[in-house]
UniProtKB/TrEMBL annotation:
Keywords: Carboxypeptidase, Hydrolase, Protease, Secreted, Signal
Signal peptide (UniProt feature, chain positions): 1-20
Sequence similarity: Belongs to the peptidase S10 family.
Cellular compartment(s): Secreted
Name assigned to this protein: Carboxypeptidase
Broad class of enzyme this protein falls into: hydrolase
Family matches, as PROSITE patterns: CARBOXYPEPT_SER_SER (PS00131)
InterPro entries per record: AB_hydrolase_fold (IPR029058), Peptidase_S10 (IPR001563), Ser_caboxypep_ser_AS (IPR018202)
Enzyme Commission no: 3.4.16.-
Main location: secreted
Top-level division of the source organism's lineage: Eukaryota
Source organism (scientific name): Olea europaea subsp. europaea
């Protein structure tokens, strides 16, 4: 055991076998006492509890005793749960407009999903955010290992928080996390059937702009580009014939297909593929991450903040995540969050240097198994995402052989079309597919999607606007 491992081991002994929780009453950047109940902590997983998974838990702002519990799995793999908390569905947000490079101010997010649900945000897999391992071997992870670790985490978390065991439970996540959502839900199903304690009140799962099967999801990018008038009929027809409808990872010996794809790539290369209506900008963050177009979903495939670029006069808006780097690396912030000193180096929103094996190529078979169970599923996609186009989920959903219960139609927020929806049923299984329209209304629309999905009278809003 080298000195780094020894140091980590001593820390582990000090912190009660790696498990700890702290209620956060104040945060640097927020004026006054936090108006929400925020808890952070570590849960130890692994054969010898060597992997320490960090989490943020926010109680529902409505009725935490009866509101559902969401276990949120951010994409990546390797993107911190903090990213979803402050840039997507959480109750806090950075003041992007007045950010000057110093410690950013924190504002309230009026469209937070915590208005109607309790949410656990996790830094997964180990090596992400503030999660760490006491052994070098512990940093090696995969889809299957992450699913088991997340399941173990959730079991231990519920044992520490028994008041939430009976709350309706939904596994939720986005982007690459879509694969792990289905896998964790399956672990819960198997654990419940085996009689493991605690029995979890799993109601279903939620996937946003998620990855299910690359052969389907990635392959729909070019048909999506054609449907959105980004490439011509001629370009698309030639590629469709030359590539036999298979555009992702084409046969290197099929020269006709490769030649047909070249002008298509030239047409879309200058676009921001995760939000085609936004400009393509250099990300304003230290060591910007860059997932390849042909490799996986972009790590920035999420609802992020918009800020003015260097020259405010040019009116160009660009996404930036610099606020999170400055904030999360500040010593006072880490102290307030009760991060264990000496366990990580520089905090990164998305760690792309993980030792991670995407060993579960497709999770479609998990969805097929759940389609024979009594649960509820929500699949939602932003309609201007070309990296994770909405056409992928529509295609794999059709392969489940479900019955259309509520055909394609618009749904509304404040009298405006906020997207489109399609509902399927099969015995006691329900699957709702939703598109979310536009940029400016995206946050509020997502909140309404959740409100309507988790039940009751909210469905009236969902159907009639």
């Amino acid at each position: 055991m080298n000195w780094i491992q020894l140091h980590a081991f001593l820390l582990l002994l000090l912190f009660n076998n790696g498990t700890s929780q702290s209620i956060i009453g104040a945060l640097p950047g927020y004026s006054g006492t936090l108006p929400i109940k925020l808890e952070t902590g570590y849960i130890a997983v692994g054969e010898n509890d060597e992997r320490q998974l960090f989490y943020y838990f926010v109680e529902s702002e409505d009725n935490p005793n009866v509101d559902p519990l969401l276990f949120w799995i951010t994409g990546g793999p390797g993107c911190s749960g903090l990213s979803s908390l402050v840039y997507e569905i959480g109750p806090l947000a950075f003041d992007i407009a007045d950010f000057d490079g110093s410690l950013p101010s924190i504002l309230r997010n009026p469209y937070s999903w915590t208005k109607v649900a309790n949410i656990i945000f996790i830094d997964w897999p180990v090596g992400t955010g503030f999660s760490y391992s006491i052994t070098s071997k512990g940093y090696s992870s995969s889809d299957t290992k992450s699913a088991k670790d997340n399941y173990t985490f959730l079991r231990k978390w519920l044992l520490i928080h028994p008041m939430f065991i009976k709350n309706r439970l939904y596994i939720a996540g986005e982007s690459y996390g879509g694969k792990v959502v289905a896998m964790v839900a399956m672990e819960i199903l198997l654990g419940n059937e085996a009689g493991l304690h605690p029995r979890m009140s799993l109601q279903g799962y939620i996937i946003g702009n998620g990855l299910t099967d690359p052969n389907i999801d990635y392959n729909e990018r070019i048909p999506y580009a054609h449907r959105m008038a980004l490439i011509s009929d001629g370009y698309f027809d030639l590629a469709k014939v030359s590539c036999d409808g298979k555009y992702d990872n084409p046969d290197p010996n099929n020269l006709q297909c490769l030649l047909a794809l070249q002008p298509i790539q030239e047409c879309v290369n200058q676009l921001n593929k995760v939000q085609i209506l936004e400009p393509k900008c250099e990300y304003i963050a230290p060591k910007p991450d860059d997932f390849g177009w042909d490799q996986t979903f972009s790590e920035d495939n999420s609802v992020g903040p918009l800020v003015l670029s260097a020259s405010k006069q040019d009116r160009m808006w660009c996404r930036t995540y610099a606020t999170s780097y400055v904030w999360a690396n500040d010593p006072s912030v880490q102290e307030a969050l009760h991060v264990r000193k000496g366990t990580i180096g520089d905090w990164r929103r998305c760690n792309q240097s993980l030792s991670y094996d995407g060993n579960q190529q497709s999770v479609l078979h998990y969805h097929k198994i759940f389609s024979k169970k009594g649960c509820s599923v929500l699949i939602y996609n932003g309609d201007h995402d070309m990296a994770a186009p909405y056409m992928g989920p529509l295609k794999w959903i059709r392969s489940l052989n479900l019955t259309v219960d509520d055909d394609w139609r618009p749904w509304h927020v404040n009298g405006q079309v906020a997207g489109y929806t399609l509902k399927y049923k099969k015995s006691e299984f329900e699957l709702t597919f939703v598109t979310v329209k536009g940029i400016q209304l995206l946050s509020t629309n997502l909140k309404n999607v959740l409100q309507c999905y988790i039940g009751g009278s909210q469905y009236v809003l969902y159907r009639y606007g």
